[in-house]
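User: Please predict the structure of the protein below. I'd like the answer in C-alpha cell form so I can feed it into my own downstream comparison script.

Assistant: Understood. Taking the following sequence of 63 residues as input:
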Amino acid sequence: MHQRIVGNSDVIQKGRWLVKACRHINNTSPNGLHWCIFSSFSFSAFSLASLALLIFSSVSFLF
C-alpha cells in the first residue's frame, strides 16, 4: 500500500517537471508550444492509464 502512495507522488513530481520544461521550451523555441501540448497530452494519458491500472488492481484484490 505504501508503494502506491510513493508512485502517486512520483507522477505529481513528473508533472511539475513537465510544466517547468514546457515553460523553458516555450521561451526558447517557436515550436515549443506544439511539443508542450503533445507531451502534456501523452503524460496525462499515461497518468490516466496508471490510475486505471491502480484502481483495477485494487478492485481485483478485493474480489
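That's the full C-alpha cell string. DSSP finds two helices and no strands in the chain.
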